Structure formats: C-alpha cells, structure tokens
Amino acid sequence: MKMVLGGASLAFTTPIVAQEIDPFCSPLSDPKMPAMKLKFYNDTNTPPPGQWVFPVITMGKGPIDTWMQFYFSVTQNQMEDPSGAYNFPRDKAYRLYVNPTKGIAPGQKICITLPLYTKIKDSGSASFDGINPKDPGQFIDWWQGGTIQLFYSSNANAPRALWDDRNYYPVSNPIAALRLLNSLSFPLRSLGNDYKPFSQNPDFAGNRDAWPRPNQYETSITAANTVKPVCKGTNPCESLVIQEDTADLPKADPSQLLEYTLGARQAVDQPKGKDSPPAVLDLKNVDFDISYVNVAYGPAAMGPVNNDQVGYVGTPQSYGTFLTALNNFRSNGQYPGWPRFVREYKPSTKSGAIERVTVEKFASPLEVMPSLTAPNPRTDLESVTKWNTDIWAPIGRLREAWQYHTSPGNGYCLSATNTGTKFCQAINDIIPMMQENYKKYLSLFANGTCQGTAVKMKHANGGEDYNFDATTDFVMSHVYGWTPFTEAVEADPTKGCKPTDNLLADSSAYYQNEVDCPTQDQPKRKCKLYGPYLAAKKEFDELNYGQRNDSPYNRDKPASNYSFNPWVVLVHGDPTAKNGMRKFLKIPGVYAYSVDDAVGNVQAWGEGVVIDVGSTKHLENQNPATPPITITVGKFANADGMDRPRFTDYLLCPRSLRQNGMPAADDPHWRPINQLYTSFILNSNNPSCQVWLRDNGDKVNYPKTTNPLKKSPQYYTFTLRKESPTIDIPPFLPEFSADKSPGWDNTGAYIDCKGNLTSNDPASDYGKFPSKYWCCSGPTQPIKTLGRGVFAYSKKDPLSIHSSLDHFVNAMPPLYMPIPPASNPGTEGNFNPDDPTCDIKPDNSANN
Asked: Which residues pair with 526 in a beta bridge?
C-alpha cells in the first residue's frame, strides 16, 4: 500500500527555490536549482568489522517526462501535441556509481545532493532553460523514478560484480592473495585480484561487444552552466562520473533494490482550460520504498529528510542477521531448494569461459513464475533438473497446488461441494476477473489497440490456443503478480499493450456503474466505482497473508508445507509461529508482493531521503511507519471575491515556546501548508504533541472595502487529548464506521484547546480574534456558522485485511471577523472563551 502521509508545500510555476543549508550536504552550483538529498549512513559496525556499502543510483528511460513538463508549466494543449514536441523524452538510463572502489565504510556517511535535472545539451532557445523538449538525450531527470542498488562487502574491496558492471576485469595479485590467507572471513572473489578497465584488456580492448556492459559510456555534457549532482562524505568522495546506458544492471547482482521519487504532481485549477498547465511540480515531497517484491538480498531502512513525523520503512537488522534468515528459509526443511540467482561473468581472455557464481540472493514467485512460460530456462537462476517439468521444488509445489485447485474437471475449487471454503471463495472470485481481462486483452489486439501477437494458452495436453485455461502457468503467474494481460509474443518492447489499456480493475463486472465526477476542464467526466474489484483484491491479500488457509491440499499432500505465497512468510514472518524458525526476515514495512497491503511505500513532505544500513539511529523518526493522523484545515472558497484569511503554516511539537506561551515566528520547523491540499500529518506514535497553525494575517481583506482590515498573523493551537495517560497511541480516538459521520458534537472532546488566546485584549494585534473561539466553537455557540471547531476521530478501512485504523483531525478555517459577528450584535455574553464547554472530558459513549 502506498501510504500518502499528508500534503506538501505548493510548488510555484516559477522555477526558483532556495536551497536549505545543511552542514552534512554540499549545495549545488546554482542555488536557484531545486535540490533534494540522498543521505547514506553505514551503521553496520556492530559487531565489528561490519559491512562496506556501495550505492548505485540509476534513472530510467521513458517516452514522456511529466516532472519536467510540470516544472516548466507545459500546458494541457502542449502535452497533447501529437508531434510530441513537449514530451521531454529519455531514451537512456543514467547512472551514478557512488564511491565505487572504496564504498561507505562502517561508521561513515555520504550525502548526494541531486538537482532536479542536469542539462546535457543547449538548444539555443531561451525556453525550458535551453532544453529541447522534443528530442531525447537533452537532460537527465534525477528525481522521477530513481532506483538505488545497494551492494555490500565485508571489507573495503568492492564486490566483483560491481567492478564488472563498470567494465573492469580481474587481474591476479599475489600480494592480495596473501592478505586473503590472513583473513579467511573475507570473500574469495573480493580479494586476490586487482581490476583494470576492459579498455586496457589486451584481448578485448578493441572489441567493446565482449565487455560486460558494452553500451555503458560516460555521458558527454556540452551544455554551459549545467548543474550536476554533488557528493560530500565523512572522507572526500570519489568523483561522481555520470554514466549512460541502455539497460538496467543485472538482476543477479549481489545488491538490494531501493526505490525513490522526489517531487510530486500537484493538480491545479485550469482557469484558461487547456491553455494552462494541468499541474505543477511539488518540490517538497518524497516517495520511497525498499522492494522485496522480486528479490531479497540485503537490509536497509529509509525515512524522509527534515520530517520527523514519518516513521521508517525497511529494517535496521544487520546484513549477517538478514543472510541468516534467508538461509534458514531455504535450508531448515521448510523450503529447500528455493531458487537463488547466479551471476555470470564474461571471460577476460579469448581462451576463457563464462563463469557462473551463485549469489545468496533469492528470487520471489513473482520473479520466477513468468519465466515458466518461456521455452528455455533463465540463465541467471540456479539450474533445474528438466525444464520446465522438474523445476525448483518449492516453486514446483506452488504450481502443483495451483493445478490441484483449478484444473478443469477435477480442480478442488471447481467442485460444488468445496466452493464454500474461504480459500476457494477467493480463487473463484479472482479467476473470473482474470478470464474477463484475458478476453479484453484479445479484443485489444484484434482492434489494433495493442500491437504484435497475443499470447496463447499452453494447455496440459500440449495444445495451444486462445481459450482461457486457469490452470496454466501463464494464468498462475498473472494471479500471483496481480497483473493484467498486456504482453506480446514478440520480444520487441514496442509490441503489446500499454499498462493503462487493460487494467485489472476495468475487467467486466469488477466495477459498478459510472458516476458523475466533473472537473473544470472535463465537466462531463465520469468515474467508475471499483467495489467488486477491491473486494477481490482484499481476498487476494488474505490468501497471501495466510488468512484463507482452509484448503485440504496440506491434508492430501502432508509433506508440502503449503501456503499460498511462502515469500510473504519469508519477508513478513509467520505470525502463527511458536518459535523463531518461521520468523525469518520479519519486516512489516516493505512490499512482499506487488499490491502488498502493508506499509510498504511512503509518500510525505520531505527534502530528500535518509538511507540507514544497520540501525535507525540516523533516521529522524526511529519508529516504523504506521498509519498517521491526518490533519486537514479548512479553507474558504472566496468565491464572492472576499479575501478571507487562510492558514499558511503549521508547526508540530515545538522544541521551545516563548514566555508568552507562543512559538517563535522564525522557528525553522514551521512548514508551509499546501493551498491546494490543506492536509498534513502528525505521527501516530507521538499524538499528544502540540499542533500550531498560523494564518496570513496582514493579507486579510474582509469585508471587501477600500480600507481592508489589517492584522498580524494569528496563531492557533490544539493538542489531542487521550482518555488515559497509559494510552500512548491511537486507537484512543472515537471510532466511526463507514456509515457514521463524525463531528464536533461527538468528537470535539478529544481536543485540548489550551494555549490559544482567550481574551479580547485590545493591545494585541489580534485582540478581536481570540483563537480559542476557533478551537472549541460548537453547535450552540454564536459562531457555529463558521464551522465546527476542531474535532478528531478514527475510521477503519473496510477493504484492509490488517484491521488498521485511519486517524483524522478536522479544523475549521481561521477566524476572519470580530467575535461576536457584527450581524448578530448583543450576543457578547453568549460565549465565554473559558467556558467548560472547551474542556469536555473524553467519553466512550461518543463511539459509534
């Protein structure tokens, strides 16, 4: 599940932003260029000697770069230009090898400051910072869709695979071999060799095709005044050399995948319709995850920069602990023979041969199953006895179990007497969706929407046709991957369907009637209601988490140790285990499959990402990410032309207050409120933290007169109030079911209004606007027409299998007139800011 943790700051269309000073990180060469940081900490030195860490950052290819379009305010019409004149295409991957020969040593750190983009060529035009938006190879986008491959080594020598990726080959070194004898704990393939570039290889210097990565070159940058990434570390960084390539690094590399996106799309109103931009780029937003969907090799923890309200995803465990868990999974009798990757090395001499080295890197069912439909086995996985009938034993058991449940004629779940089991209910809801999706897939090829040749079903009797067969490897791989049918027979990447052409959720009967959901530029827009799809997806989640394990397969096959997806057991652990053997990795905050409904991905306000290997001590929040408390503040529409005040900034958990109990106006932890999405988050692990808001004060013009009212920014505050001092985290808020509506009447008692201004002090800049009225105005108060004060509640997501609660706080807009309203004179005595109404104690009877 992508956890969207509140709003972020509004990015202005004018591409100018100041860089925040950070003593750890170096600034960019141009202070006007938007900047984000990747901070790497190596805390693996307990116990000594720890692991050396080698990050590799790669930015992928794409036909359209929406980040550049949003940043440069490309209009809707320009985006839809059929010539692609404003697409900002990327036809190469760009890569940074960070400290590739010495890595990040235990106890050390490195910060990479990334510009939004690096210009490669100058077009000569003043538009788009001199970038030609039509042709590829003009720029490098460092923010949209980046990956980090973390390599690990038990010594200061880079892993052989990392040298190989950089087009270096090993040269025997007798002195290094002697060092190996003195330290048997060092891996054999890291010592005993020096490395030289293939460009100096006497056999292959002139034959680039024989190199490991023949299409990887140092990028030639000719643009003047371009802004490149910069590196700063505990020790001086090695030079950052930008490499370009046509492909990703090998999946079999001894590395773990981390993913990030910096910045976010921020939708805007389009007053000029398609002649205006549909969105801008939010420059203070980060999105990150550690993905174990396809592979498992090593640990790391990730959190945002300059946002201590968001917990981490990943794991702080050591590399040794992680490796032990992998080996326990494979060798303790549960899943022997689980497939591992095999790294191939090209020969470095003409007389040499390809060398295959097994890596303790495990492949998931989602990684392995699609390859079962291929005519030949993959070369980057361990060999099997006979392709593709006698394959890796654990994957073979999953295939056998799938056929046991779904085979035409005798499949267990197809029998009328067995359809009542929880397991079969899920299978029988999912398979028809896949069948409808395949049917639509064939029609898309028939009408020309998809290019190439549609893939046939390969039946158990050896026949091939387009008749849907649930028992096939083809269907099984799509179910486990929860992916629609889009592929083509041809290997050409231009063939097949676009991902959006055939979404699973759009399968017939899995969405309900469309409803009106107009926007300014699409007044007749329709939206689908995906209730049936979401219900099937919840069942799929329950299968993965072992909550529908009432199939008799284990009874009929007692040695199978069957679970629908043992990879989820590896990653998240077995919650039913009574000993440590089935705990395995035990990492809750990561993806274990493609639509894992745990906290796997975080999107939040931030100025970069912190990556900590071996601990959490350098993360700003050292708690695992949990569903936060989302605070939404009201905003007046101002449709009548009145310039009413609005909240502009928020401050959470102030470190100190002035003598008057107010926070300092220049506290560096004030954060701007996104005026298009007026929500932000409070850490649910520390909910009793004072929340401060600030309005735009001196910009107020209400009522609309020639002499607008002037006042200084007003401050507002509240704190969530717990039922008991022993309750540290939600659920202490009243819980509401989906059909119940919370409000101030039944949840306002959970708000503590202490700290707000409580008297009409004429000497105060905002004496006529006491903020306590704002905090605790209830339905009986004279300002009830302005809103319902501040109230808090929780709701359970009915489609989540984890029974987790989502937590919310709603606040009315800031005050904009003296109290009481001029339209209601004589009511001054009706409201006392110190009235006990503002101090109602929590009452469980408010729960619904």
From this structure: 516
pLDDT of residue 819: 44
Q: Which of 498-512, 641-655, 778-792 has the lowest mean pLDDT?
A: 778-792
State the pLDDT at residue 777: 58
Per-residue pLDDT at 690 exceeds 60: yes
φ, ψ of residue 114 in degrees (nearest 5):
-105, 125
Q: What is the pLDDT at residue 830? A: 37
Helices 422-446 and 393-406 pack at an angle, to 10 degrees, of 90
**Six-digit token pair at 256?**
């773990």
- CA 395, CA 528: separation in Å to the nearest integer? 37
Average pLDDT, integer, range 635-654: 78
pLDDT for res 571: 94
Instruction: State how far the Cα of 35 lies from the Cα of 842, in Å rounded to an integer.
Output: 45
Residue 762 — pLDDT band, cuts 50, 70, 90?
very low
Please determine, for residue 321, whether its predicted confidence score (pLDDT) is greater than 70. yes
For residue 216, the one-letter residue type is Q
The CA distance from 386 to 371, in Å, is 14
> Measured between alpha carbons, how far is 17 from 772 in angstroms, rounded to an integer?
36
Sheet with 295-296, edge to edge strand ranges: 295-296, 355-363, 340-345
Helices (H) and strands (E) in the chain, counts: 14, 36
Quick one: pLDDT at residue 577? 59
pLDDT: which is higher, 703 or 384 = 384
The answer, yes or no, to whether residue 596 has pLDDT greater than 70, is yes
Q: How confident is the model at residue 212 (pLDDT cuts 50, 70, 90)?
A: very high
Decide if 773 contacts 812 (C-beta within 8 A).
no
Q: Supply angle C-alpha 627, 633, 637, rounded to 5.
A: 135
Separation between Cα atoms, residue 756 and residue 718, nearest integer Å = 8
| 336 against 638, higher pLDDT | 336
In the three-class reduction of DSSP (H, G, I as helix; E, B as strand; rest coil), residue 594 is classed as coil
Q: Are 341 and 295 in contact, with CB atoms under 8 Å apart?
A: yes
pLDDT of amino acid 245: 97
Residue 110: C-alpha distances to residues 25, 181, 374, 782, 814 (Å): 8, 32, 42, 57, 43
Distance of CA 502 to the CA centre of its chain: 23
53 backbone dihedrals φ, ψ, rounded to 5°: -115, 135
| Sign of the Cα pseudo-torsion (745, 747, 753, 754, in order) | positive
By CB atoms closer than 10 A (0-12, 13-18, 19+), residue 518 is exposed
Report how far apart the first and last C-alpha atoms of the chain are (Å, whole number): 27
In Å, what is the CA distance from 119 to each residue of 78, 85, 129, 138, 624?
21, 18, 9, 6, 38
How far apart CA 607 and CA 264 sit, in angstroms, is: 12
Average pLDDT, the chain: 82
- CA dist 226 and 242 (Å) reads 13
Q: Which residues of 167-268 form beta strands (DSSP E)?
A: 168-172, 193-197, 217-218, 230-233, 242-245, 255-267
Query: pLDDT-based confidence at 508, cuts 50/70/90?
Result: confident
pLDDT tier for residue 126 given thresholds of 50, 70 and 90: confident
What values do phi and psi take at 340, rounded to 5? -115, 165
Q: How far is CA 269 from CA 276, 520, 543, 676, in A?
A: 9, 7, 42, 9
Output the CA angle 439-364-508, nearest 5 degrees.
Answer: 20
Task: Report phi then psi at 378, rounded to 5.
Answer: -70, 145
Bridge partners of 603, per DSSP, are 4, 287
By the 10 Å C-beta count (0-12 exposed, 13-18 middle, 19+ buried), 101 is classed as middle
Distances (CA, A) of 104 to 43, 155, 158, 599: 10, 10, 10, 28
CB 605 within 8 A of CB 304: yes
